[in-house]
What does this fold into?
Amino acid sequence: MATTATAPTTKSWSGGKSPFNVEYGKVMMWYFLMSDAFTFGAFLISYGTIRFSTNGWPDPNEVFKSFPFSPEGMNAPLVFVSIMTFILIISSVTMVLAVQAGHNMDKKGVVKNLIWTIIGGIAFLSCQAWEWNHLHHEGAWWGSNPFLNHDGTASSTNFTNYFFTITGFHGFHVFSGVIINIIMLIMAMTNKFEERGHYLMIEKAGLYWHFVDLVWVFVFTCFYLI
It folds into this structure.
C-alpha cells in the first residue's frame, strides 16, 4: 500500500507586528549607524595605512600641547583634548539619563538631561573650534603642515589633511547631534511625547549620540595617542 509523504506545517509570520519586537524607526537608525560606521572605518583605515607606511610622522605631544588662555610657552601635552574627551563622555552619560527618564515617562528628567547633553555638545564643538583656529594660526591647514617629524625632518601634508578631514567630519556629526537633541528638547517641552504616550524618539537620538561618542574614542586614539 503506497503512502503519501506530507510536508510538516510551519507557522509563518502573519504580519502586523515585528517578528523581532523592535520598533521600525530604531531598526532604521541602526542601519544608518552601520553605514556611517563603514564611512568612518574607511577614513581611519586609510589614515592608518598612510601613517604606518611612513617613516616620519609629527609627535602629538608637540602638536597638541597648547591650552586656551595659557601663558606663552606653556607646555601641556594632550591636556586640552583630554578635557574635550571628558566633556563628550559626560554628555553621553546625561544622554543615558534622558533616555532612562523617557522610559519612566519623566518629562522633567528628559528636559533637564537633554539640556545638559546639548550644553556638552556645544562645549565640545567650541573646544574643537578653538583647536582648529590655534592650529591654523600655527600654519596648519589642508595642504600645509608646519610640524616636523619625530626625527626633525620635514613632514608631509598627510597628517594635517587627514586630521582636518576626519575631525571635521566627526565635528559635523556632533553638530548634527546637537541639532537633533534641540529638536527633541522642543518636542519634549511642548508635550509631543506625552501626547504620543512614549519617548521612543529620545532613544533613537540617544543611539546617534552614543555612536558619535564612540567614534571619537577611535579618532582620539589615532591622532592624539599614536
